[in-house]
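Table S2 (text version). Query chain:
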Amino acid sequence: MKDSPKAQASEQERAAHILKVLHALYPDARCSLSYEDAFQLLVATILSAQCTDARVNTVTPFFFRLFPSPQAVAQASDEAIEACIQPVGLFRVKARNLKKACHMLVAEYGGKVPGTLKDLLRLPGVGRKTANVILGNAFGVAALPVDTHAARVAQRLGLTRHKDPDKIEKDLCALFPSESWVQLSHQLIQHGRQVCRSQRPLCASCALNALCETYRHGRFF
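Corresponding structure-token output:
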């Protein structure tokens, strides 16, 4: 059963309050991966799967000195790529994906990272979250990446009932204005890392607890 118009309006109002608090808490929230262009962000985001951004940022400077372009990655040996990215984990799979993706960039996109969701999703190693990170941060497109932190915060706040990231993204996009999506993703991630942690979240001192469905119903962690 769909929510009534009154309930939908109330939820939109609560979302607006949540957004206001997040803006006050994290006015400068941004992508924590280090990059200079769309290619570098593509590489960094592929490497960040099941790995911290901080660890990725220790690897990418050396990687980009060795492989400064899609052409350089496409021409490199698997062993050379693997050796460079070994600290990030799952390095063999990621090395294959990087090389295949860069081959596709060179062969089909003139060595440039495409700026549409459809084209990005064709690249090996790129899922919807990765594509949205690139669209929002490298191309300035309204996009809302949902990682494990953003998903956890959205679920606990009661902004979604879903566990699937794509469905969570859809729910969040329906609640928040499109111009807020990119930074909202970073704010949710930062809040998830600093306050609404997976283990021992700081519920009692959280600035959002008055707006949090989990806290309101007495489900503390």
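Notes on Table S2: The chain has a mean pLDDT of 95. The radius of gyration is 19 Å.
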